[in-house]
Write a structure and sequence with these properties.
The chain is of the alpha+beta class. Helix content is about 20%, strand content about 30%. The protein is built from three helices and six strands, in the order βαββααβββ. It starts with a strand and ends with a strand.
C-alpha cells in the first residue's frame, strides 16, 4: 500500500487565516493524482479523525491543473492564542506523511 509521502512530490501546511489551517498535497503526476485524490484516507472524515476536528468542517479543494488536493480545517485555537503550538501552521502536514492510501474505487 502506498503512503502519502510516496505519491506526492511536496506536502505542506500553512495558515489559511487566523482560524484555519490548509494542507497542500502536490501529487507527483497525473496518474497518482487521479488514483489517490479521492482515497478514503483523504476523506473529510479521515482528516477530521487525524486532526481532531468536526468532519463537517473539513474542506476539500481539487486543483486539477496542478494535480493538487487542498484540505482545510479549523484550528483548535486561533493563531497567536496562548495555547497555539504552531503559530504558522507549518508543521501540521507531518501527520499525513505516513498515511496509507488505497486507490479510490
Amino acid at each position: 500500500m502506498a503512503r502519502l509521502r510516496d505519491v506526492c512530490r511536496y506536502v505542506r501546511s500553512k495558515n489559511a487565516g487566523p482560524f484555519w489551517i490548509t494542507l497542500d498535497l502536490f501529487f507527483d503526476g497525473e496518474q497518482n493524482y487521479a488514483r489517490f485524490r479521492d482515497a478514503p484516507a483523504l476523506s473529510p472524515e479521515a482528516v477530521a479523525s487525524i486532526y481532531g476536528v468536526d468532519p463537517a468542517q473539513v474542506r476539500r479543494y481539487l486543483v486539477d491543473s496542478l494535480q493538487v488536493l487542498k484540505l482545510s480545517y479549523p484550528r483548535a485555537a486561533p493563531q497567536g492564542d496562548a495555547h497555539e503550538r504552531d503559530m504558522h501552521g507549518g508543521q501540521q502536514y507531518v501527520r499525513l506523511l505516513d498515511v496509507e492510501l488505497e486507490a479510490a474505487v
